[in-house]
Amino acid sequence: MIATFKLMRQVLVHPIDFFHDIQEPGRIKWRDAAVVMLLTYIARMVAILATGYAFETREPYEISFLHEFIWLIVPWLTWSVANWAVSAILEGEGKFKEVFVGSAFAFVPYMVFIVPVTLLTNVIALDEDSIYSFLINLTIVWVAWLLLLKVKIINDFELVKMLWITFLSIVGILIIWFVGILMFGLMNQLINFVVDLFKELNFRR
Amino acid sequence: MKHVFKFRYVVSTAMALLMLLLALPIHTFAATPYTGYTINNLRQDVRSINGYVYEGSIDGYNLASGAFSAPEDVFIAEDGTVFVVDTGNSRIVHLDKNNNVIKIVGDAEGDGMLNEPKGVFVKQDGTIYVADTKNQRIAIFDQDGKFVKAYGKPDNPLLGATFSYSPSKLLVDKRDYMYVVSDGNTQGLLQIDKNGQFRGFYGANHVGFSWKRLIDKLIATDEQKAKLAVVKPLEFSNAVQDNEGFIYTTTLGTETNQLKRLSPVGVDTLNIGERRYGGRFDAGPFSVPSFLDIAVDKDGVITALDLQSSKVYQYDKLGNLLFVFGGLGNQNGLFVTPSALAQSEGGTVYIVDKGRNRVDMFRTTPFADLVHDASRLFVDGRYKEAEGMWNEVLHYNANFDLAYLAIGKSLYKAENYKEAMTYFELARSRGDYSTAFKEYRKEYIRDNFAMICLILIALFVALRYLLPFLWRKAKPLLSARRTAGAGLTKEGVPHDRNV
């Protein structure tokens, strides 16, 4: 646990070193990724609760803790899979574990800063929202930069290749989602078919 | 003896019960065939108290005029008398305030003979302007119903060769200019001066920008373009004028901004951006409300009739929904095919039901009177005076979101920002909430300036001196533990450059 927090500190303060270091064997664990994502999720939920009235655009009943969880975890998982797959094909050096845990650690700035920034909405008015949106955008850009850094360092890519891989990863994410939704629909049909078949047979017994 | 006692007992009980029955107020009520609702700030329909209830009908059977046939319009003159456009019988029936016939306009023969007129307008001096639709003219009668003259189809190159004239509604302004709604005309209201000269179109709807059209235009060949449906601006179905000279129009075939308040130069001053009028699902999904008529009272309250749902929607001067009533059906209070409406000085709404050949009257409920009074003050910005009334409105109906907003504004004006924030939150008005919050914050900082400064200094000291001090103290302890445990446990980070 202490080690995870030390890693979190390192990714904030020395991100380049961090991504170099995690390639050394034994430095990261699968568990670290789970802890970071869980903490990010908790930070997000706390931030939603702490948002000032004027800044909350959704009604309470429109917010679901399950949806928030899915919208955090699914993009991260699919990004990890797509990014690892694409970079592995295109001569990247990264292992899946590094991609997986590295992506999780990219969320650390968001996890750390989202709550204090959101607390700000309780003391500023709507016409001063540029402060708030600037800080939020800053953390998001930070996260995006860490993700790109991760792609570059872990796989030891050039800048242009890194951007190309990122683009391909995003395409990969969309393909995974498309296939996922397709599979979901087909499975639904299949299950319904089997259930109906069973019902029909039962009815004619 | 015993029997007598028993008898007395029974009689006295019966008497007492009878007295009690007499003492009780007599309840008579008739359920309205429609449920009152209003739209809250989440755009959801919520229950509300009915603002209008059915009062009676005029069908002409027991009048000197005889029964109406497919009436198309009703007009209430300045003096409170009622003109019913009896389209099927090609005449205008003039009724007094007690709904007795004063006169019948439209001659049996000659130039004064009408042919299925659809609209009427009566000037202050009693001159009657009739949109004589099938005769393609505007017929004018004096206050005694005598035919004076008629204006035929206006002749002007601007109108184009294919222009078909079918005047259905009209209004006359102070300059004696006629503003004529011609069925199927998409260029706006026709302005005709008192000499019968066409003076231009007024307030036309515009065709908005559409990406689809742009792409069509870019990629379609000339032949394909020729086959595309021509996009035309939307057509007006009615127009009325209020005391201030604004012309209110109803537009067919659109989901937004069906009601407009046009300034003298024809610019809409009611809608800022897109606004939906009518009920979204009242007539079923994917149906667009088609407003046929509109009435505006002296306070600017807008009452509009929608054919799709056969309901009447009432909005305040700013376009907030106040009441909805009517609907499709055969009971009293519902309509078969409504075609027009008008509002009397006293607030009674007259609705022409073409399908049932009669004119229905609706009176306001005490709740509606209260809301009207309160909203008049609110629209004028007299928030403080309206506050009590809005509280009463909420007492009757806590779903009335407009009341929360109005009370919030009143509290804000009274510099009671904290409570104003509560009411703005109830009204879900984030902008107003934020404005009140800003004032509240100012006030709070002023009141607690010393405390806030103290906390800031304490925070600074804690972060600058106390925390590093504690860190220095704790560091040796931590590192001592790590060196002690390093050999035993796999925890800790090997090769950490930053340790």
Topology of this structure?
The complex is a heterodimer of chains A (205) and B (499).
Chain A: H1 2-13, H2 15-21, H3 30-50, H4 65-89, H5 96-106, H6 108-119, H7 129-155, H8 159-204
Chain B: H1 2-23, E1 37-39, E2 45-47, E3 52-58, E4 73-76, E5 82-86, E6 91-95, E7 101-105, E8 119-122, E9 128-132, E10 137-141, E11 147-151, E12 167-172, E13 178-182, E14 189-192, E15 198-202, H2 211-219, H3 222-227, E16 236-241, E17 247-251, E18 259-262, E19 291-296, E20 302-306, E21 311-315, E22 321-326, E23 338-343, E24 349-353, E25 358-364, H4 366-379, H5 383-396, H6 401-413, H7 417-426, H8 430-447, H9 449-485
Helix pairs in contact in B: 4-5, 5-6, 6-7, 7-8
Could you characterize the architecture of this molecule?
- The complex is a heterodimer of chains A (205) and B (499).
- Helix content of chain A is 79%, strand content 0%.
- Chain A has one domain (2-204).
- In chain A, 30% of the residues are buried.
- Chain A has 205 residues and is mainly alpha-helical.
- By secondary structure, chain B is α+β, with helices and mostly antiparallel strands.
- Chain B has helices at residues 2-23, 211-219, 222-227, 366-379, 383-396, 401-413, 417-426, 430-447, 449-485, and strands spanning 37-39, 45-47, 52-58, 73-76, 82-86, 91-95, 101-105, 119-122, 128-132, 137-141, 147-151, 167-172, 178-182, 189-192, 198-202, 236-241, 247-251, 259-262, 291-296, 302-306, 311-315, 321-326, 338-343, 349-353, 358-364.
- In chain B, strands 3-25-24-23 form a four-stranded antiparallel beta sheet. In chain B, strands 4-5-6-7 form a four-stranded antiparallel beta sheet, with no helix packed on it. A four-stranded antiparallel beta sheet of chain B has the order 8-9-10-11, with no helix packed on it.
- In chain B, strand 24 (349-353) and strand 25 form a beta hairpin.
- Chain B starts with a helix and ends in a 14-residue tail after the last helix.
- Chain A binds chain B through residues 2-3, 6-7, 9-10, 13-14, 17, 21, 24, 26-27, 53-54, 59, 123, 125-127, and chain B through 42, 425, 430-431, 433-435, 437-438, 441, 491-498.
